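Lab notebook: predicted structure, single chain.

Context: the supervisor wants predicted structures on file for every construct in the current expression panel, including those that have not yet been purified. This is the next one on the list. No modifications to the sequence; it matches the entry in the shared construct table.
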Amino acid sequence: MIVGLTGKYAGVSFPADCEKEIVFGRDPNFCNVVFDQFSTSVSRCHCAISYSASEGLYYVTDYSKNGTFTGDGRRLIPNMAIPMEKGTILFMGSRKDSFRLD
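Prediction complete. Output recorded below exactly as produced.
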């Protein structure tokens, strides 16, 4: 599960089906989790998250201009699938929109 902590999706859970990507961003043509046009820190296609059950890891790929950050403030390398453990907190562009990988 990917759990919204703050912002528009606070308290909402998204099932992380094995090997399927969930794409976050403002463009409904490309994204599964869509933010409105007022969420200016979130890019049109911000990031994609998938879960590998065999490894017990999430993979997060940042496609944004404003960055995807871990809870400790580390910015993800753009366009590279980065392995993340369960419990990792992610911020999309700013701390306004945060999610936890459960």
